[in-house]
Amino acid sequence: MTTAPFTDRLRPARTRRTVATILLAALALTVSGCADATDADPKPSSSSSKPEPKPTQSKDPQAAEKKAVLAAYDAMWVELMKSYRVASAKGTKLERYATLHALGQFELDLAQMKKNGTVIKGSLGHEAEATQVDTTAKQPSAVIEDCVDLSKWQTYDTKTKKIIPLPSNQPTRYKATAELERWDGHWMITKYTPHGERKC
């Protein structure tokens, strides 16, 4: 706290009261001037500010379930490609993602490859989408529509040591569908159908 000058402390009380009155009046004018300036250029109040946007929520109530369906489909293809590279499902986890019916379809392909002495090199592209998901039924089911890309797919002849080119009438991109059911809490492919004649 600043101490008043010695000469002020020696002034009569009346003089000090007069000085105090003048100082208070000056202070009031200063405050009034600040208030006027504030009114002339008011700052936006908190009530006039725009409300913060609420976090956007997915419009699809089945988004999480569709994600799980696609994850099972992707996992199945990882294991299936392992089997195609050696023309055998042994040592893979294919049966974890495909039911007996779907597994039988893949086993037929693998048996034919083994008979022909072919294996698969390269990779297979996918643009899969879960188009139908029904979790209210007694047996939850789903359907996936996929656009399969063969541009990096290679059928290798183990006898001639050569790549077998695709048939001339085979589109490099074609549609395929997969049917799934949820068993014991996880999705499994029950049927896979390639539509080699349908381009995408």
Account of the protein in words:
With about 200 residues, this protein is α+β, with helices and mostly antiparallel strands. The chain has a domain of about 140 residues: Roll (Nuclear Transport Factor 2, Chain: A), CATH 3.10.450.240. The protein is built from five helices and seven strands. It has a four-stranded antiparallel sheet. α3 packs parallel to α5. About 15% of the residues are buried. The N terminus is likely disordered. This is Secreted protein/lipoprotein. Keywords: Signal. It comes from Streptomyces cavernicola.
Q: What's a quick, concise take on this entry?
A:
Residues 36-65 are annotated as: Disordered. With 200 residues, this protein is α+β, with helices and mostly antiparallel strands.
Topology:
Elements: H1 6-9, H2 13-40, H3 63-86, H4 94-97, H5 100-116, E1 118-122, E2 125-134, E3 141-149, E4 153-157, E5 162-164, E6 173-183, E7 186-199
Antiparallel strand pairs: 1-4, 2-3, 3-6, 4-5, 6-7
Helix pairs in contact: 3-5
Q: Helix segment count?
A: 5
* DSSP, total strands: 7
- N-to-C SSE string, H for helix and E for strand: HHHHHEEEEEEE
Quote the distance from N terminus to C terminus: 84 Å
Low-confidence stretches: 1-42
CATH architecture of the domain at 63-199: Roll
**Rg (C-alpha, Å):** 39 Å
Structural class: alpha+beta
CATH topology of the domain at 63-199: Nuclear Transport Factor 2, Chain: A
Work out the helicity level: 25-40%
Largest sheet: 4 strands, antiparallel
What does the average pLDDT come to? Answer: 80
Overall, the morphology is globular
Task: Quickly name the level 1 CATH class of the domain at 63-199.
Answer: Alpha Beta
Region (Disordered): 36-65
Organism: Streptomyces cavernicola
Keywords: Signal
Signal peptide: 1-37
